[in-house]
Amino acid sequence: MIRLFDSLKTAISNGLNGRMAHVSPDAVFEAIDWTSVCEKPGGASHSIWEILNHLIYWQDYCLMLLEGDSPTSPEHASYSWECPQGPVDEQQWLDKVENLLSGLVLAEKASAIELEGNLLARPQESRIEVLESLVGHNSYHLGQIVLLRQLQGSWPPPSGGNTW
């Protein structure tokens, strides 16, 4: 059983940090021109800015669950997409990216705690289920941002990255 949880912890860490089949969050946001983050190239439904805010919304929600809080679920999925029109300046953009990245560090720390335990506020859900959901959600939307960057001609970033 211990090996299973070690394997799960590794899989969660890989997902949160962009290893194996997951793209690195650092790379996804590397060298993005903040003035382009509101574009919706190719008829995209959402911009990089909107996706980033959506990622932060659900990451914060998951972190609250992992801390034993009982956040209110939004009545409609569209509520998790509400965000300011766009960043007012580069610093606001960088602060939002840092918000996401620092939340990933907290999620990583949460995965090192009693992984097999259930949530205090929602005993029908386990910590592992919340972390797996966060990994899957982040991986999906970070992939969308990579696609948007490809459409904008800004992928891969200067440090490199998968192009397939």
Structure description:
By secondary structure, the protein is mainly alpha-helical. It has one domain: dinb family like domain (Four Helix Bundle (Hemerythrin (Met), subunit A)). It is built from 5 helices and no strands. The protein is globular, with a radius of gyration of 16 Å.
Keywords:
164 residues, mainly alpha, Four Helix Bundle (Hemerythrin (Met), subunit A), 5 helices, 54% helix, globular
N→C terminal distance? 36 Å
Determine the structural class based on helices, strands and strand pairing: mainly alpha
Domain tally: 1
Rg result: 16 Å
CATH top level is Mainly Alpha
Mean pLDDT: 89
Strand content: under 5%
* Poorly predicted residue ranges: none
Order of helices and strands: HHHHH
Q: How much helical structure, as a percent, in the residues?
A: 40-55%
What name does CATH use for the topology?
A: Four Helix Bundle (Hemerythrin (Met), subunit A)
By CATH, the architecture is named Up-down Bundle
**Strand elements, count:** 0
Tell me, what's the shape? globular
CATH superfamily: dinb family like domain
Q: Largest beta sheet, briefly?
A: none
Please, how many helices?
Answer: 5
